[in-house]
Amino acid sequence: MSTILSLNPKAVWKHFHALTQIPRPSGHIEEITKYLVKFGKDLGLESFVDNIGNVVIRKPATPGMENRKGVILQGHMDMVPQKNNDTVHDFEKDPIETIIDGEWVRANGTTLGADNGMGVAAAMAVLESKDIKHGPLEVLVTADEETGMVGAFGLKADTLKGEILLNLDSESEGDLFIGCAGGVDITASLQYKEVEPDADDVAVEIVLKGLKGGHSGMEIDSGRANANKLMVRFLREAVVSVEARLSSWQGGNMRNAIPREAHAVLTIPKDNLEDLEGLAEYCETLFNEEFGAIETPIKILTSKVDLPKGVVPEEIQDNLISSIYACHNGVLRMIPAIPDTVETSTNMAIVDIKEGKAEVKFLTRSSSDSMKEYLATMIESCFGMAGMKVEFSGAYSGWNPNIESPILKAMKETYEKLFKKEPSIKVIHAGLECGIIGATVPGLDMISFGPTLESPHSPAERVHIESVDKFYDLLVVALEATPIKE
């Protein structure tokens, strides 16, 4: 059986394979940090970890290229840890198992880590190569991008020396990104005192699963279902029709991933058990009718469990369910001047209600700061009516495009020469680190590109094999075409 080590370009796939063998979920990047620093030092290159945990590796210009502008190749070292419910995998200990599936590479029931392992692997291949022509080169591999762009936010302005930043974290080959959305994390929370359930009631666990999930920016316009929004429809009807009381609810686990599963525990009068099971069957059929053209079969499973010690007080329960039901999720507006590109959206990422505390978390994105503020205030208003505390964190502005960028001109010309067609110039509805780094290091000429990935942040994540070859060819030739210093 062939492995990814047999794929071209071999230099990139070799390093990507090595990255898959090192557990690197967000928040647990100690080993990958050590590996990258050792990799650079073993090549005889200046390699270090900065104040926030980013890895920086510097490589001098190849002979004759000393007069070129310095280039920074930038990616992030962490990956999103998502797995199918029936997959046994410990992201802090186990390597990723890769599978060649026709024209694609995917993982076995988990996220692949091509986001952003492919970009990092390409940068490593450039560092290792003795044949690629380039000017002064830096590789910046940032820490914990997926959980708040920690490395980008903590980067100091004097860490970098280059004038051009090539971000290798885009996910559509043939697209050159020159702008991105800003974002803000929103958390609505409430403390409450549980009440005892009726001793004659029975408890039922509800499991809603089978959704694709995906990237909450790149795929927010795909029409995919959000497990939390489906669960709240079921729960509201259960409260109304079978006298259900909510004990707990957990849905989603990553701020930037569309929730694929949700779990809730309800108590109901035992005589209503059959009606609850019938409601689950009805909603399962309904949701599959609504989303059958987009989602894999959606499942709603019911099973009796031990009676919990407490349930949410009825008035608070009703307010929580009403607020979650009413709150916006998904695309709010497209960019008026670019109507095929999302401008403003939100992802109801996490619902966590249990043991006297309720939290609902969102990631709101927009390339317009005013529209981002409008949507954030809409969410604040919705949960404020339920008496919940609403907090904003991790806010960052978008990256404003520069259509006169010298590196954009060079990359367009390079792409046309290589592939005999024009690349697409786009603004991405996701939070690229370019926006944050560009604010810290004013004057950087920036562009973002990468191979084709599908469904990052979900176990369906996969990377198109041929696109990796084209992506790396473009990177190599673009480095040789780097503009001369003025």
UniProtKB/TrEMBL annotation:
Presence of the UniProt keyword ATP-binding in the record: no
UniProt GO cellular component terms: cytosol
Required co-factors: Zn(2+); Co(2+)
Record's catalysed reaction(s): Hydrolysis of dipeptides, preferentially hydrophobic dipeptides including prolyl amino acids
One record GO biological process: proteolysis
Record family assignment: Belongs to the peptidase M20C family.
Protein name: Cytosol non-specific dipeptidase
